[in-house]
Every structure is written in C-alpha cells, then in structure tokens.
Automatic annotation (TrEMBL), chain A:
The keyword Nucleotide-binding does not apply. One of its GO terms (cellular component) is cell envelope. InterPro entries: Imelysin-like, Imelysin-like_IPPA, Imelysin_sf. This is Imelysin-like domain-containing protein. It comes from Zhongshania antarctica. Residues 47-355 form the Imelysin-like domain. Pfam families: Peptidase_M75. Residues 1-28 form the signal peptide.
UniProtKB/TrEMBL annotation, chain B:
Its main location: other. It is found in: Cell envelope. Gene3D superfamilies: M75 peptidase, HXXE motif (1.20.1420.20). Keywords: Signal. It comes from the Bacteria. The keyword Cytoplasm does not apply. One of its GO terms (cellular component) is cell envelope. Residues 1-23 form the signal peptide. Pfam families: Peptidase_M75 (PF09375). Residues 45-403 form the Imelysin-like domain. This is Putative iron-regulated protein.
C-alpha cells in the first residue's frame, strides 16, 4: 500500500489539527459539557445534601420520640415537636422532586398524606391505637399510608384534642399512643434513609444514572431529558405552592373564592408558611446548584439568557421575603383577601411561576412534561 | 419558539424516518392537522350526544319509577344510570385542555361528596373537615340555617340545588350531578371493604304510609330535579360541540391555530391519564385504603368508570368512538399524524394504550367475575395483594402512556402545555 506523499506545509497543518483534536479531547475529559456539569453540580450540591438532611433529621426525630416515650415529659414532647418541624423543613427540600427514587413505589405518600379532606388520619390512627395489634415498624409499613409519615406524626403531636402531653401519660391508651409514635418515627427514618441511599454513589447511585446520560442509559438517553426533570421540578414545586398550599386553601384562587382552611398543608401544627419558605429555598438551590454550576449559569453562559437567570433568582428572593413578611400563620388568617402581606406574596409567587413556566422552557429549548398534580 | 423538544432522540429518529415515509407515501393519503382537529370535534359531538341521550333515558326510567316506586323500577333506574356513565366517562378525555368542559364538569361529576348535605346518613358518617354543609340534609329540611342566614328550601327546584352546589366553596358539597343521583339511587355503601354496594330501599320514594326514612316527597323531588339538571347540562355541552352553531366552542376551536388545538388534545389525554385517573381516582384510594375516595362509591360501578376513562383516552388518540347504538365513528387521528412523522413513536404509543386497556380489563373482569367478584372497594383494602397488583399495573401503564404522549407530541412538534390558556 502506497501512502500519499505529503508536502511539508501539509504535514504541518495536519500535525496542528491532530494537536488541536487532542487538546479538545483533553478538555472534554477534564471538564464535562455544560449540560452535564449542571446535572452533576445540581445533584451533588443540591439534591444529595437535601436527602442527607432529611435522613439525619428524621433520625434525630426518631431518637427524640424514643427518649420522650421512655419518660414522657412536657420538655420531651416539645423536643419531639421541634424535631418534627426540622424534619418537615428538610422534607420540604425533597418533596418537589419530579423524578428518581422518590417517585418509585410512591415514596412521597409514605411521608405525607395531604390534603386529608375527610380527616382520615385522625380516624385511622385512633382505630389502630384502640386495636390490639402489635405496633411496630413492620405493622406501620403494611398499613395505609394515612397512618405513616409526617402527617400521622403531626396528628399525634399537635392535634388540638389528643396531641398533648396528657394523651401520653395516665390514659388507658397512652402506652399504645407512644408505641405508635415510636413506630411511625422509626418507619419514617427508614423511608428517608432509603431515599438517601438510593441517591448515594456508595449505595444505589441514582446520581450516576441521572448524570451519566447516553444511549446506554434507558432513563436518560441524553442530558436534555434529565434537564427537563429539573425544569419540571421547579415548575411543579412553585405551582404546588401557589395553587395547593396557598390560593386554594385561602380562597384566593378566584375573586369569589372562599377559604377552605383545612386544605392547608400542615394546618394542625400551623406550620404552613414555614414549609413554603423551606420549599422556596430548596427550589432556588436546585436552580442555582447551590454555589455550583447550575441552571442559572447554564442559562447565562450557554443560552445567553443572563437577564432571565437574574430575574428568576431575584423573584425567588422576593417571594421568600414576601413569605417571611406574612405575620401570622396561614391557618389563623381571618380574612385573607384583606391582608396586604398575603396578596403581596400571591403576586410574587405568580410572577415567579410565570418566569419558570413560560420563559424558562423557551430559553432552555425544553418543553414541560405532564405532572401528577394535573388533575383537580 | 421553533423547537421545544423533550425527546430529542425520538425527534431525530422521527425526522429520519419521516424522510423515508414521505418518499414512499402518496401525498393524497396524507392526513393534516386540520382534518384531525375537525374529526376530534366530531368525536366530541358524538360522545356528548350519547351522554345526553342516555341521560334522557335515565330521566324516563326515573320518572317511571317515581310514578309507582317498586324494586324493579329502582333497578331499571340504576341500570340507566350505569349506561349513562359509559359515554360520559369516555367524554372525560375532552375535559382537560378544553375550558368549556373543564369549567363546567364540576356541576356534573364532582366527587367525593359529603352526602349528608343531601339526605340521611349512617351514624358513623364523616363530613370533610370544616365543611359547613356536610350535615345539612336538604331533603329533611325545608328551612336551612347557614350560621344565621336562612335559606328557604321548601320547594326543591333547579335554582335551589344549583345554588347549594359547592356551598361555601367546598368541593365536597355536591348537590347536583352524576354522584348526587348515584347516592339518591343507591344510598351509602355501608359494606366498607366487603362485597356489596349501597342498599337504599325503593320505599324511600314511596308516598304515604310506606315511605321509609321520611320526606319521600322531597326525596322524589330532589331526584327528579337532579336528573333534569343533568340533562340540561349535557344538552348545553352537546350544542357546544355541534357543527354549524355560530359562536359555540367547536367554532372557536376550529378557528384556533392548529398547533394549539393539537396541544389541547394531548393535554386532555395526558392530564386525565396521569393526574386525574392515575392520581386522584386510583392512587389516593389505593394508598390510603380509603373507600371514601372511591369514584363511584355508592353503586360500586368504579371499575367501569375507570375502564371507560381509559377507553376515552384511547379513542381520542385513534380517532375512533363506538356509539351507544353500536355505530363506529372513525376518522383522521392523532395517531395518523404521529405515524406520518414517526411510525416508531406512533407504534409505541398505541402499544402503551393497549397495555392500559388490558390492565383496565383485568380490573373490570375481577369486579364482574361470576365467582367471588372483587369490586374496587375490596381491591383497595389494606393487605389485598391482588388488588394492589391489579391497580399498580394500571398506574404503571398510565404513567407509561403519558410519557408516550410526550414523545408523540414531540414527534409532531407539539408542546402539550402550549394550550393557549
């Protein structure tokens, strides 16, 4: 086989090209393409830490419940309630994810049953306490989701009638009520830890599945499918806050709407507003990948939408400020329509949603998917 | 907004494939978006016409029953209600995405209800938390006291019932529609997770000494009124989809950009699949083991309601509908459009739809089995593994078909959320 003879200049050009190709190859190996960088940074700096916090706080909650039930006291109960609130905060950082382990076998339902229109929680919890069944984590796992997770614990810890210290001391059901409290907190920690494990590189490593996209990856054939999940998470999260956690329960969805206060998330503990702020902080962290290279940077550097990127961040911040400015718990708002702070928050969250739902998909060139809350 | 694609690989595949398809297909056989949109409106008209005519049949049976209440007449009315559900449940694929339907349907199919608003209930009945209407019992009370405000309910007519529907803004206050009528025909299902539906005695409608549970005249008036409201509402919707009706919804729809209408069609199929049927109607009751979240809880007709929801979605994709009289309507479909762009994506979508229908058939077969039937409320009982398997399979298929719709929409460059609303 005769090789074509090349002149010196031709050879020189070729060498340069080879060097250039090698250099590009090296750069690619050192630093992944921007879209992959978003996936890696968002999962490592936002999603994984959120799961870790949820697992740890649910563990602390379970330990506090154990101690309380060993010797029920008013301080002990306060401590369990405090850990319950911390766990709601950390759950609010995971709650809005629209993909991954959380969606497998309806894990979210084991953590939260809401809205509970017909007071099923109170009814099913009391039936279980008054039964003669063994109350352990296995029994809880087999039971209706209504008696599992943070919603059931909210009832046990905050119900106006039966969520007080006297229900845990000196009544015929106090031993079983405590046994249930311990079993449900233990079960919740199992669920939370299972989710964290499913993401961790050392364990289930969903992180790898989510960040290493490609033709061999059935769930994520390319980066855009994974990015679309982040987009869905942001939109579904803010939509849930606006519609289900705020406008509907407060009767602000239409001009003649009437408040349906028991539709509020966490009404029993009057923790609705705090959960909204925890959601917003977590969603902002998903957008920015905390301090890493997130969708915000991708919008700026790859999609040339630095204005939108800045706007979205500003409106996350102003929505948070507006939520923090609401003086009373949402549950005790007497006339929502007349409260300037509530209307101010409604305006902020509406703008934020519109940026995320209309402008962001266009800027990213990715369309929104259907979400599970699309029904009524 | 040149390209909003969620499934770029599918798109690339489809562009390549469509190149081949276009090279082979005869231009005359090509289906266009306008033809699909027109046929979609025709399907809507046929389905709502059937819903209306079957509601009129229900009205005839109810009237016959009320003239001379007996067990036979009650059963005939119940059967007519079940038949009326067949087209209506299929029509729900037209609900989401079409505001004319979505803004109206709560008058007809609102659920779950606090039936204590309407009539007598058992002692262990629970109303929704904070619902001021949950125990009003309209049938027993000619004067209704709403925290000081007195409502004259001495005459039960359409105006009264429409006014009390969603009283206090609560969706649980269902005074009208299919489920209010269902409750009036069957009564509460007091069997929990055991076999058996509501067992309202026909004597609840007997006038004179035979009347059970009191107020039989008012109960009869309520039933008659609720059925006539249903007929009136369905007649309105049939007209909205009728051809050659200036200013109706159909004419507005046909005047819209075709991309928007196709997005609405996809939106209707996807939202009913995932959020409504999969979420609200199956997942909630399954996960909570809650009979109160069962869709047709008084009549135990839930399996059929779910089956016909599924069929309605498949109908829309395939551009097909079998009318109550057996006639089959066929025409240019979304499936044709997607097939022209990507035979693979279309095939996959049709496969997911067939899989869902097979899973729904397993549900209805189980509920209708001659030997040991298991109704929906039994299947959702705690620890019923068979029920969990059957229902989880449906949920899984509904998720898969929703994802297939996203891919199908992308294949024809439609963003299903861009509905112009």
């Amino acid at each position: 086989m005769k090789l074509p003879t090349l002149s010196a200049p031709q050879l020189k050009v070729m060498t340069h090209s080879l060097l250039l190709i090698a250099a590009i190859g090296l750069t690619a190996a050192c630093s992944p393409p921007p879209s992959e960088k978003v996936l890696i940074n968002t999962s490592k700096l936002a999603i994984l830490p959120a799961h870790e916090r949820f697992s740890l706080s649910s563990q602390a909650l379970a330990l506090a419940a154990d101690s309380f039930c060993a010797a029920p006291s008013s301080e002990g109960l306060d401590l369990v309630r405090t850990h319950w609130r911390t766990t709601v905060d950390s759950w609010s950082g995971v709650q809005n994810l629209q993909f991954g382990p959380l969606l497998i076998d309806n894990q979210a339902w084991k953590i939260q049953f809401w809205p509970d229109k017909k007071n099923l929680i109170a009814r099913k919890v009391e039936v279980l306490i008054r039964s003669d069944e063994v109350l352990n984590e296995k029994r809880i796992d087999d039971a209706s989701v209504v008696v599992q997770g943070l919603s059931s614990l909210e009832y046990l810890l905050f119900d106006g009638k039966l969520g007080s210290l006297k229900s845990y001391a000196n009544t015929d059901t106090s031993t079983r009520r405590c046994a249930l409290l311990v079993a449900v907190t233990g079960h919740l920690h199992g669920v939370a830890n299972g989710l964290y494990d499913a993401w961790r590189p050392e364990s289930g490593n969903y992180l790898q599945a989510f960040t290493k996209t490609g033709p061999d990856n059935p769930e994520y054939p390319d980066d855009n499918v994974a990015l679309a999940n982040l987009l869905d998470t942001l939109v579904a999260g803010v939509e849930l806050i606006k519609r289900d956690k705020f406008e509907r329960p407060l009767g602000l969805a239409s001009s003649d709407g009437q408040a349906q206060i028991y539709l509020l998330e966490w009404w029993r503990s009057q923790y609705s507003r705090e959960a909204i702020t925890a959601n917003l902080m977590a969603l902002k962290t998903v957008f920015t990948a905390a301090s890493g290279y997130g969708l915000d940077d991708y919008l700026t550097s790859v999609k040339q939408h630095s204005d939108l990127s800045a706007q979205i961040q500003q409106h996350f911040d102003s929505s948070l400020s507006a939520a923090n400015a609401i003086p009373n718990s949402l549950f005790s708002s007497p006339a929502p329509r007349d409260q300037a702070e509530l209307i101010a928050f409604q305006n902020e969250i509406t703008t934020l949603l519109s940026l995320l739902k209309s402008d962001l998909p266009t800027a990213l060139g990715i369309s929104l998917g259907f979400n599970a809350k699309d029904g009524d | 907004m040149s390209a909003l694609f969620r499934h770029p690989l599918a798109l690339i595949a489809c562009l390549i494939l469509s190149g081949f398809a276009q090279a082979e297909a005869k231009p005359a056989a090509k289906v266009d978006a306008l033809a699909v949109v027109k046929h979609y409106a025709d399907l809507g008209h046929a389905i709502y016409s059937d819903a209306e005519s079957s509601a009129r049949q229900l009205q005839i049976q109810v009237e016959t029953f009320l003239q001379a209440p007996d067990q036979e007449g009650l059963i005939a009315a119940q059967k007519a209600w079940q038949t009326a559900r067949i087209p209506y449940q299929q029509s729900e694929a037209f609900r989401f995405g079409n505001p004319v339907v979505d803004d109206w349907e709560h008058q007809l199919n609102s659920w779950p209800l606090d039936e204590g608003l309407i009539d007598y209930v058992a002692d262990d009945y629970f109303a929704a938390l904070g619902n001021i209407g949950g125990d009003l019992n309209i049938i027993a009370n000619a004067r209704i006291n709403l925290g000081g405000e007195i409502i004259d309910a001495s005459t039960i007519n359409a105006e009264l019932l429409r006014g009390l529907h969603e009283l206090g803004g609560s969706a649980a206050n269902v005074a009208t529609g299919y489920h209010a009528i269902e409750f009036l025909l069957w009564g509460q299902d007091l069997h929990g997770h055991e076999l058996g539906a509501g067992e309202r005695p026909y004597t609840d409608y007997s006038q004179g000494a035979q009347c059970s549970h009191g107020n039989c005249d008012r109960r009869a008036a309520y039933l008659r009124t609720a059925v006539s409201i249903l007929v009136e509402d369905l007649s309105y919707m049939t007209k909205q989809w009728a051809p050659n009706h200036a200013g109706n919804y159909r004419s507005q729809l046909l005047a819209l950009n075709k991309q928007i209408v196709l997005a609405r069609i996809f939106n209707g199929m996807g939202s009913l699949s995932l959020g409504e049927l999969g979420g609200e109607r199956i997942k909630v009751s399954l996960e909570a083991n809650s009979t109160e979240d069962e869709h047709d809880c008084f009549s135990d007709n839930t399996h059929w309601s779910h089956y016909y929801n599924g069929l309605g979605i498949e109908n829309v994709y395939l551009g097909r509908y079998q009318r109550l009289n057996g006639d089959i309507l066929r025409g240019p479909s979304l499936s044709d459009l997607v097939q022209q762009a990507s035979p693979d994506v279309d095939k996959k979508t049709r496969q997911t739809l067939s899989a869902t229908m097979a899973s729904l058939k397993a549900l209805s077969d189980t509920a209708e089995a001659k030997e040991k039937p298991m109704k929906f409320d039994m299947l959702i009982a705690e620890g019923n593994q068979r029920g969990e398997d059957i229902l989880s399979a449906i949920l899984k298929d509904l998720v898969a078909q929703t994802r297939a719709f996203e891919a199908a929409a992308a294949a024809i460059k439609i963003d299903p959320t861009a509905t112009g609303l």
